[in-house]
Design goal:
The protein is of the alpha+beta class. The chain has a 14-stranded antiparallel β-barrel with strand order 15-16-17-18-19-20-21-22-23-24-25-26-27-28. A four-stranded antiparallel β-sheet has the order 6-7-9-8, with helices on one face. The protein has a three-stranded antiparallel β-sheet with strand order 1-3-2. The protein is globular, with a radius of gyration of 25 Å. The two termini are about 45 Å apart.
Length: about 550
């Protein structure tokens, strides 16, 4: 790997060839076959292999930051498309030539796209963590990990596994799943599959699932076939060259249980067939960093003490900011590029569209018994009681520059702190800490609105080893006030669809909605007039970390 960027020799060689041919940012594109012809003579590797390496540097579903821009269909024959250096690619090449300080492209993109075992991270997280190190070389590992957050994959798939062990440098098995959204708006329930893991493709999946639909053709000698209640399978992204737009829609038969279908798709290899093999709808991989991730970050700084790394991080952030965005995903999940403080781009709004009438949505029968909630919130910001079958005892302290919470949830020590910031784009809050051995890191971005609590907010992060993605919408009305919000999103495999309202008298609040579409949430908060005590009672059907996530989301806007 290049010690200046973390890129491999073939990747650096291809960037050199593009520069030699004049295919630089804001300059002309060059026919791809010309690039490969020259690269073959310079690098001594076949054109087919080099062509895949070149395309991987430009595929937004393979790398977090692209080093090459393509014009035309990237998957077409090299005679029918063109390419040139991206802004990031030109910056990386200048760093390799020692014309600029080093840039952490390798830390961002990882090596999974090369067939390696080091996953990628969001660019803004890596830049933020390295910037924190440059400001304070004595920063603790826990705070550094809170800034860096969890690994991600360019597709945006879900990650389940011991991420903390992976970040500590241990070889760790992770399970990668697509996003599965249940659409109840039509006459028949449908499952929307997006954000696929690596090596799982919409075309293959749609073809394998068509055998379950009426009239679907089964393979000969497939004697153990068990048909799922699927009425129709649609590859919504069919014909698109950009695999970051992968989207398969599965329409279920009437009275089908979507949770049962999802469980069989994810956990049973009998449901999804690829040729003669069967595989569940997930991708299992082993990740391994060379050493703890915090040590990697510190080493990257310590070996370059003589360089102006702040300048290179600013240049990288600007190059990413000015790069053309990849094509928009299908309307099931719009992903606008939103700014966070410091000018670093961040992908937000990964949650679902709200049902039109969330408050009056008909709830299905409860599959598992709900857990009682009985909490008391007293003056001095002390929250005690039981919820979801576990004890909660925490103290929350606030100040102008943020606050912190200390206590215990289910006998696990809780320690969090949060820091708000504000600029012309809105209000931002970062909450970081630990719950037992698990890392907590939550980012919230809030857009204000006249006459309402706020227009909308985005909440993303990791909680107890699971990914949290929530969108919060300000809604008019509710208990005689405008302070009503709709909460929609996911924690790990759990889907939250809730609304919370606060009465204008501040004596009553409610939380209603569902967990995983089936399980109703019914929580009331009452504050007797003249008493500095709030009683929180009701039922909550999810595990303790779900309720913790909900409390954390509400805490972010208190």
């Amino acid at each position: 790997m290049g010690d200046r960027t973390g890129l491999g020799p073939l990747e650096v060689g291809l960037l050199e060839v593009l520069d030699e041919l004049g295919a630089r940012p804001a300059s002309r594109y060059v026919k791809t076959f010309r690039v490969l012809d020259l690269a073959v003579s310079r690098l001594g590797v076949g054109a087919n292999y080099l062509g895949e390496v070149l395309r991987d540097l430009a595929r937004p579903w393979r790398v977090m930051v692209r080093l090459v821009d393509f014009h035309g269909n990237i998957e077409a024959d090299s005679r029918y498309n063109e390419c040139r250096l991206s802004e990031v690619g030109a910056l990386a090449l200048a760093a390799e030539r020692r014309e600029l300080p080093a840039v952490p492209v390798g830390l961002i993109n990882g090596t999974v796209y090369q067939g390696g075992s080091q996953p990628s991270f969001p660019p803004d997280r890596v830049i933020g963590a390295l910037s924190e190190l440059l400001r304070d070389r004595e920063i603790g590992d826990q705070r550094l990990l809170a800034v860096l957050g969890s690994p991600v994959f360019p597709h945006g798939c879900r990650i389940v596994g011991d991420v903390g062990a992976a970040l500590a440098g241990e070889r760790t098995d992770l399970h990668l799943f697509p996003h599965i959204d249940t659409d109840w708006s039509a006459n028949q329930v449908a499952l929307d599959l997006t954000h696929f893991p690596p090596e799982l493709w919409a075309d293959d999946l749609a073809r394998s699932l068509e055998q379950h639909a009426p009239g679907g053709e089964r393979m000969e000698r497939d004697f153990d076939f068990e048909r799922l209640p699927i009425a129709e399978v649609m590859n919504v992204s069919a014909g698109l060259a950009d695999h970051s737009n992968e989207h398969v829609r599965i329409v279920l038969e009437e009275d089908a249980d979507p949770e049962d279908v999802i469980a069989k798709l994810i956990y049973s290899g009998d449901a999804v067939r690829y040729f003669w093999t069967r595989t569940p709808l997930r991708y299992d991989m082993t990740v391994a960093f060379r050493q703890p991730v915090t040590a990697l970050l510190r080493s990257w700084i310590d070996t370059r003490r003589e360089e102006d790394l702040n300048a290179s991080l600013r240049a990288l952030s600007e190059a990413i900011d000015t790069a053309p965005s990849p094509p928009a995903r299908p309307p099931v999940r719009g992903i606008p590029l939103t700014k966070i403080p410091g000018g670093v781009p961040r992908l937000l709004n990964r949650s679902r569209t709200f049902p039109a009438d969330l408050a009056n949505q008909t709830l299905l029968d409860v599959i598992e018994p709900p857990h009682p909630v009985n909490l008391t919130y007293t003056a001095g910001d002390h929250l005690t009681g039981t919820a979801s079958g576990v004890a909660i005892d925490s103290t929350i302290s606030r100040a102008a520059g943020g606050g912190h919470g200390d206590g215990a949830i289910a006998d696990q020590a809780l320690r969090v702190e949060w820091h708000p910031t504000q600029n012309s784009d809105g209000y931002y809050l970062t909450l970081a800490g630990t719950l037992g051995d698990h890392l907590i890191h939550i980012d919230a971005a809030l857009q204000p609105a006249p006459g309402r609590l706020f227009e909308h907010a985005e909440v993303h992060g990791t909680l107890a080893g699971e990914q949290l993605d929530v969108r919060v919408e300000g809604v008019s009305g509710g208990l005689g006030s405008s302070d009503t919000v709709a909460i929609d999103g996911t924690l790990g495999d759990h889907h939250l669809a809730l609304y919370a309202a606060l009465a204008s008298s501040l004596t009553r609040g409610i939380i209603r909605g569902t967990i995983n579409h089936h399980h109703p949430v019914h929580i009331d908060a009452t504050a007797p007039p003249g008493k500095a005590t709030i009683h929180i009672t009701g039922t909550f059907p999810g595990p303790p970390n779900l309720l913790t996530a909900l409390l954390a989301v509400l805490l972010a806007f208190m």
